[in-house]
Predict the 3D structure of the following.
Amino acid sequence: MAMPEGTRTLREMLLAARRAAGMTQSEVARKVGCQQSAISMFESGLQDRLSEEKILALAKVLKVDPAGARPEPVARTQARQILKYCPVDECPSNVPYVVRGQVCFAPVLVLAGAEERTHCSDCGEMLESACPNEACGAPVAPGAFCPVCGTRYVTPGGRATRNVEAWIAARREAIDQLRTMQSLRPVGGGARKAEPVAEDGEERR
C-alpha cells in the first residue's frame, strides 16, 4: 500500500521507486553518472555521497517528484565517526608484511569525526578516510586492501621494494621499539580513538 505524499523523505521515495521499478543500484548509477557505491551510501542515509545535481538526476530517472517529499530529519546525535588511516608507507602506524612477494601494510585505523581534519599522531600527515582508487572511493574498512575494489590503502615506496625481507624486518623492529618507548598500542593493526583537530591544525583541548 502506497504511503501518502509528504510522509517520506526524498531518499526514502527514491529507494522505494528504484525497487518498484526493479532496477539495481548499478543500473541507476550508470544512468545518473556516478558509482554504485555512492548510490548505496546515499540510500543508507549518507546524504553527502550524492550532490544535489545527482539527486535531482536520480529523481528524474525514477520519475519521482521531489516536491512531494518531507525534509530529512535533523540529526541530534553526536557527529558521525568514521575510520581513517595514514597513507605514508614509512609511518610507524603502518605495519609492513609480505604476501606472495608483495609488500603490504596493515594500517592502524583511527576512529574520528567524519567532518574533522585529522592528522596522524605518528607522522603528522593528514589521515585518509576513503579508498585511494578514485573510481571506487569506498569508506575505509579494516584490513590492508579495499574490500570493494581490492586497492591497497598504503602504497610502498622505492626503498620497500629493493630488499623486501630486510626492509620489513628493520621497519617492524623500529616500530616495536617505538611502541615500547611510548608505551602505546602493540604492533599488528587495530583501531584507536583520535584527538580531534581544529581547522588551523591545532589539537582541541
The chain has five helices and four strands.
